[in-house]
Amino acid sequence: MTAHSMKLGVFDSGLGGVMIAQAIRGALPDIDMVYLGDTLHVPYGTRSEQAIYMYTKACIEHLFAEQDCQLIIMACNTASASALRKLQQTYLPQAYPERRILGVVVPTIEYAIERGLKHIGLIGTNYTVHSNVYEEELRKINPAIEILQVNTPLLVPLIEHGGMAWMESVLDHYILPLKEKGIEALILSCTHYSFLKDIIRERYGMDVIAQDEIVPAKLVEYLKRHPEIDRKIRRGSKDAFFVTDLTENYAEKTSEFYGMPVNLKVIEVSYG
Question: What is the set of domains in the chain, with CATH numbers?
Fold first, then answer.
């Protein structure tokens, strides 16, 4: 690969990561970016660890092999919690030693710690909450921080399938108990939930930590620290959006999340 010939990949189990892609586009307007949403298998949060790893690895392989990505942002918290470390430690060194995959969990935790927060709430998928990855990573840095976690499995289906009419009562059910416990801030530990950040801020008067507001700045910092990676990424302001399953609803949602019309292409990923 010649210098400036590769792309930045953004991977998510569904379409929530499109909001992170949009925010990255705002921070790095000239970067060439490829988005892949595994909409055939969304949501990952209810799947087994083996299934999550298989789906994630197949999509990452596609982004590296077929789309020439140098660096991939794993925008999916469930995949970050379940598959990221194994991919970084075993798959990358063997298959693509010069390339990198970054998750969203550690940047989110770093941000919460930089803010000096001590009593944090978190909403996430079943897998992310039960994996306890946020608490484990927090403990490594500051064991004194308390985190209260609630799994919120109804939110992604409501967001992806036009269920906003029921959203406030569902959010009340999940968030009011956390508010009563006096949390200082709420981590939205699923990329889809960025779609709800304004509703949550207004409805509960709550300090919200949303990943589309954190990840782009952390990515910019990372590229500054790693010019050898930065140099390889082409700056042509191009983007492409791929999904593993396409419905009319997905097409509408993607354009809504990205803030402008998006041309989605369906690809076949080998999950073997």
Answer: 7-103+213-266 (3.40.50.1860), 105-212 (3.40.50.1860)
